[in-house]
Amino acid sequence: MLAQLELKHFKCFEEQRIPFAPLTLLSGSNASGKSSVLQALVLLHQTMRAHEWSTRLLLNGEEIKLGTIADVVDKEFGRQSFEIQIDETDGTSRRWFFEGERAEMSMALARIDVDGVMHDRPTHLRYLVPWAPLGEAGEIERHLTRLTYITAERLGPREVYPLMDRQIATVVGASGEHAMSVLHWGRDEPVLAPLALPGIPNLRLAQVVGRMRTFFPGCGLDLQPVAKANAVTVGFATSDGGDFHRPIHVGFGLTQVLPIVIAGLSAKPGDILVIENPEVHLHPAGQTRMGQFLASVASAGVQVIVETHSDHVLNGVRRSVKETGIKAQEVALHFFRPRTQDADQVVSPQLDAEGNIDHWPEGFFDQFEKDVGYFAGWAD
After folding, report:
1. Is the torsion defined by CA of 368, 370, 371, 377 positive or negative?
2. Strand 106-114 to strand 117-120: parallel, antiparallel, or no bridges (unpaired)?
3. Is residue 193 in some structural domain?
């Protein structure tokens, strides 16, 4: 499991360490660095997955497209390079030093520190670490290669969804484009025992339907392959015994939540889920349930890293802590602020066993209180 990420001269960071837990929530104002943390992980994942033997970091690929080196190096302190370090809970670590000309769209690996051993200008790499004959990928590389990244810009309703081979559709995809393939091919596979809802067969399709019903009571799914085509259709029911409707007729909320539910119920222990704004198109009560669902996934042994603007998602996690669905020490909260000289860029409030937060920095999910105070006449 990832224990910590350290970034130096990457985007808006001069130098910043971000501790991870089984469940990590990133919050804060826009353009304060939350997405940059996720992007650093996804860049490594994207390169390792797309080009196993690459000697360069791909800034533009299927998951994310970040432009040129000039776009990703900190403008104030960086020039043509940045560093990414990842530490695992087992004590292993990697520190990559990437560099290149500012107009380039990929970065050369100048050197890498592998568990305290420095390798300068390595030429034979596998998964961005020095390759050794008969050597196996380390835990960090395995975790990053298997990472699932889901962006805030997920696919909306579609008449037909492409059906990809299971060797390609190993994860749901950044936009959820492979979600139906993952569900189709794994429909009869069991989900992790702690995530299996009681009274429902422990099969992925049945459990996905059951979990969707916790967000949308009466929800049903009819997943059907299209004859003589590499495609499937999905029908949604919105009430028990009701007809199945085309996705466009049931609202965006269902299609936005479904890839996250499929990803969570398809994950294995040690996998990493990186999710942007899981609250998109969800009613406040659904946002709270999303926080509870992600807490249950993390408690089952899957590492979950979430960027969110929703206090309801946060409160769903807090409720899970209070209800002992996840331990307080298994949750990390990080609040990001624009960089200044007189304040920390990242503040990390702590949860106790009752789900209480030890301190609330200015701007940390406090807008509701400010607005209520305004109408009550005791705040500006």
Report:
1. positive
2. antiparallel
3. yes
Evaluate whether 64 touches 43 at the Cβ level (below 8 Å): yes
Q: pTM (2 decimals)? A: 0.94
Residue 298 has phi, psi (to 5 degrees) of -65, -40
**Torsion, CA 249, CA 251, CA 254, CA 257, rounded to 10:** 150
Residue 86: closest CA among 34, 19, 13: 19
The rounded distance, in Å, linking the Cα atoms of 312 and 284 is: 6
Return d(Cα 54, Cα 150) in angstroms, integer.
24
CA distance 159 to 109: 43
Tokens of 298: 């993390």
Residue 367, in any domain of the structure:
no
Which pLDDT tens digit goes with each residue over 109-161? 999 999 999 999 998 999 999 987 656 778 899 999 999 999 999 998 999 99
Contact predicate 10/84, CB 8 Å: yes
What distance in Å separates the CA atoms of residue 18 and residue 26, rounded to the nearest whole number? 10
Look up the domain containing 197 and give its range: 157-254
In a domain, 196, yes or no: yes
Question: Is residue 9 in some structural domain?
Answer: no
Q: pLDDT value at position 380?
A: 57
Domain count along the chain: 1
Here the tokens at position 60 are 């533009």
